[in-house]
Amino acid sequence: MTGLYIGGAWGPAADGATFATLDPAEATVITECAEAGPADVDRAVTAARAALDDPAWAQLPAAARARLLWKVADLVEEHADELAELETRDNGQPLAVARNVTVPGTAEHFRYFAGWCTKIEGSVLPVSYPDTLHYTRREPVGVCALITPWNFPLMIAAWKLAPALACGNTVVLKPAEQTPLTTVRLVELMELAGFPPGVVNLLTGGAETGAALAGHAGVDKISFTGSTAVGRSLVHASAGDLKRLTLELGGKAPSIIAADADIDAAVAGNVQGALFNSGQVCAAYSRFYVDRKRADEFTSKMAAAAAALKVGPGLDPATDLGPLISEEHLMSVDAHVRSALYDGAQLVTGGRRADGPGFFYQPTVFAEVTDTMAVAREEVFGPVIPVLAYDDPEEIVGRANGLEYGLAASIWTNDLSTAHRLAARIRAGAVFINMIHVPDAATTWGGYKASGWGREMGPYAIDAYTEVKGVWTHLGRV
Predict the structure, then answer these.
(1) H-type alpha helices, 283-405
(2) Nearest to 284 by CA among 387, 380, 178
(3) Is 311 exposed, middle or buried (CB count within 10 Å of its CB: 0-12, 13-18, 19+)?
(4) Beta partners for residue 137, in sequence order
(5) DSSP string, 192-261
C-alpha cells in the first residue's frame, strides 16, 4: 500500500480511506493507495504554506535549488529500470516507450529547469519620473496545486514539478487515480534528494480530492493537464479567489497530407503520431485531411501499417500497442467507433476489442469520413484514425481550424511554402511539419481555444510560476 506525503512524512489518509490501482494489461489490482480527503488536503496545503516562508526553502540559494533538481534527475536515471517497469504496469504503455521516452524525458526536465534556477532575473526599466530607479523582481507565485493525468503520469509530473520548484514555489501534487505509482516513487526519490519538509507534498485520490485541492483558499496556483470539461470546472473553482491557472486540455489534432507529400513517410509518421501510447495522447494526430488524389493510397497504406502492429501487454518486448487505461475508457472508445459506423464511415481495419484479459483495442482506420461526424469532431483518445478527403487546398485551413480545440497540428508536404503558409494560419499551440509530436523541455507547450490556458516548458514555464513585482525608489532628497 502507498501513503500520502505531507510535511515531510508518509502516512495513511486521515479517515483510512483507500482505493485500488489496476494493471490495465491484466485487469488486476496492483496495490491499494491512500485516498486523501478534505482533512488531508488541508494538512498538505498548510504544510506547503509553512514551507514557502521557511528559511530552509525561502532563503535557499538558487544554486542550491539547482543542485536539488539535478539530484532528482540523477536519481531518476539511477532507478530508470524500476520506474519504467512501474510505469508500464500501472499505465500500460509499452516498456520501450517507458524506457526511451518517459524516464529520459523526466530526467531531462529536471535538468533543464535546474539550469534556470540561477537565471531567473528581473530588469531595470527606464521610467519617466526624474530621480527614480525602477526594477522588477520575479518571485514565486506561492503554493501550487499540480494535477496530472493518467496517460504520461511520470513525465507530466516532471513538466510541472521542475519549473514550479525552480522558481521557489512549494507544491501539492495530485496524480490521476488510475496511475499514481510512479508519482509516489518520484516523490520518494525527491525526499531522498533532500528537499526541505513541506516543499513537496503528495496527495493520491480521485476527482473529489482534486476538487478539494483546487477549491482550497490556501492554494495560489493550479496547473492541470487533462480533459477540457475538467479544465472548465477548475476555472469556476478558481474564480472566487482568482487563483492563477495553467491548463493543458483536450485536443483533436489535424494532420494535413498535401498532394506532393511523400506518402510512405507520411504513413510511417502518422501511424506513430496517431497510435503512440495507443492514441492516449492529447496531441495525437486524430483527424487526417488528405488530398483526394492521394486519399485511397494513404488510407490503404495506413490500414496495412496499423493492422501490422502487435497489440499486447506493455511488458512484452514485441508489443507495439499496449492496453487502454480502463474498461470505462475502452467502452468510450468503442462507442465512438460504433457512432462512426452508424454515421456512415467506412471501416477499413480494426473496429473492435482485441483479445486478452486487459483493456485492449484494435487499431482502427475509417475512410469516407466527413467533418460533421462525431469521430471527426470529438476527442476519442484511442487508436482510431479517421481519414477525410479534400479537393481544394484553400479549404483546408478552415476545416482544420473548425473545432474548439487547438493543441497541436501536423503538416506533410515537400513544399516549404505550403508548409510554412499553413503553419502560420493553423490555430494550434504546436505545429509539426513532416514529423511526429515530440515536446521538448526547452520549447513551448500548450493550446489555443479550448485546449488550454498558458504554456509549459522552456522559458514560458518561468512566466507561469512567477509573479513580477515592480520596485520604485526615489533617489532625490525627501
Answers:
(1) 292-307, 327-343, 374-377, 396-400
(2) 380
(3) buried
(4) 469
(5) HHTPPTTSEEE----HHHHHHHHT-TT--EEEEES-HHHHHHHHHHHHTTT-EEEEE----EEEEE-TTS
pLDDT at 212: 96
Number of domains, the chain: 2
Kindly give the interhelix angle for 181-193 and 62-78, rounded to the nearest 10 degrees.
130
pLDDT per residue as tens digits for the range 118-137: 999 999 999 999 999 999 99
Same domain, 93 and 147: yes
**Residue 443 domain-assigned (yes or no):** no
| Same domain, yes or no: 125 and 270 | no
Q: Which contacts (CB < 8 Å, 24+ apart) does range 124-128 have?
A: 127/472
245 plus 257 within the same structural domain: no
Same domain for 341 and 197, yes or no, is no
With 0-12 / 13-18 / 19 or more C-beta atoms within 10 angstroms meaning exposed / middle / buried, residue 114 is: buried
The CATH number that applies at residue 344 is 3.40.309.10
Asked whether residue 440 is assigned to any structural domain, the reply reads no
- Reported as a pLDDT band with limits 50, 70 and 90, residue 163 is very high
Residues composing the chain: 478
Please tell me whether residue 268 adopts helix, strand or coil conformation: helix
Domain of residue 414: give its range: 253-433
Residue 410: phi and psi, rounded to 5, are: -135, 145
Cα dihedral 402, 403, 408, 413, rounded to 10, equals -30
- Judge if 67 and 49 occupy the same domain: yes
In a domain, 282, yes or no: yes
Out of 35, 108, 248, 368, which one is annotated catalytic? 248
pLDDT digit string (tens) for 315-338? 999 999 999 999 999 999 999 999
Same-domain check for residues 223 and 304 = no
Nearest to 40 by CA among 84, 82, 80, 5: 5
pLDDT tens digits, residue range 224-244?
999 999 999 999 989 889 999
Please give the pLDDT value at position 138. Answer: 97
Residues 76 and 215 in one domain: yes
**In sequence order, which residues have a C-beta less than 8 Å from that of residue 338 and are 6 or more positions away?**
none
Which H, E and C letters describe 425-471, residue by residue? HCCCCEEEECCCCCCCCCCCECCEECCEECCECHHHHHHHCEEEEEE
Residue 59 is part of a domain; what is its CATH number? 3.40.605.10
Question: 42: part of which helix (H) or strand (E)?
Answer: helix 38-53
Measured CA to CA, the distance from residue 345 to residue 339 in angstroms comes to 9
The rounded distance, in Å, linking the Cα atoms of 76 and 65 is 17
26 given a catalytic annotation: no
Domain membership of residue 45 (yes or no) is yes
Do 198 and 61 share a structural domain?
yes
